[in-house]
Amino acid sequence: MMILEGKKMGIQFAVLDPDPQAPAVSLGDTHVMGDYHNREKIRELADISDVLTYEFEHIDGAFLKDLEEEGMVIYPSSRSLLIIQDKFRQNRYLKEKGLHLPRFLKVDSLQDLKEAGEKLGYPMMLKATTGGYDGKGNALILDPDGREGAFFDLKGEKDTLELMAEEYIQYHKEISVIAARGDGGAIALYPPSENQHEDSILKRTVVPADVSSEVQAKAEALAKDTIEVLEGMGVFTIEMFVTLEGEVLINEIAPRVHNSGHYTIEASETSQFEQHLRAILALPLGDTSLKRPYAGMINLLGRGKKNGSPEVLGVQEVLETKGAHLHFYEKKAVKFGRKMGHITVTGDSREAVNNSLDDLEGQVLIVPDQAHE
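That's the N5-carboxyaminoimidazole ribonucleotide synthase sequence above. Prediction below.
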């Protein structure tokens, strides 16, 4: 999606990906085939590039720092990435800067976890400090009896993963703000979006979020402060909790374009993908206004009991729906729960957008072609 936007501006792309059939490979000008942690391949990519960027944060931040010291231009910077890659380091840094987030404690032992429960109360979240996404690496501990199982489930057999405990927030809504920081520290914010998750995977986004003007102002200020203290360059996504009392707390930060911002391709004057390119290439940031009053997005996750080549069911229904747009990512294998595409809907009211998303959600499926489920 970033390449599609960049090609409009005449930008050439080299892609590092271990999969010879990765969706970006068919669009890019050059493919460097290699693992995201293969330093030789990362250097090969750097040698043929003017600027390096990434849309996946589980990469070798330390090596990116080495490349920066050699003069390579990388955005977001290794500094931003290394802070965000470790949730405990990130939270400690943000707390020191005075930003609002749930209470948290480092957990190195069962005794630490016991003490964390006494301080943070139950339910309580236990998180791996590195490597988690879409709910992986997290465990909800409902009561003291669940401590030991959660601890060893996350630690695993190798016992090398570091953990932290986090206060469980009884939130009213989950929202996110897509923020871009560009040349000279200029910042552009997209309207807060309201997100719904299922099994810790984003299911639906509707924008603007159905929150008060006071909550919106808090969310936008928190997003601006976050990207500034991280000295971010490019697009960052700040996921937040809105509490029952109307407070806004940081939940997660992604140093990249984000699933909750996919609606911007059709719904915004400047998509998050074009905005990211503008920011990292020191171009003026674009207008973040919505083209229509409301927009929404649903993820299309892989269905069916088997893996196989994907078949898209319900294309007719999408194309017959006013304001609806289908995106199929051309991943060569469908797996249950894998993000295979998304649908965007724009409209003049929140109700109209939600109604269209409701109608399409059960009709559009991506399944293994042999399953027809």
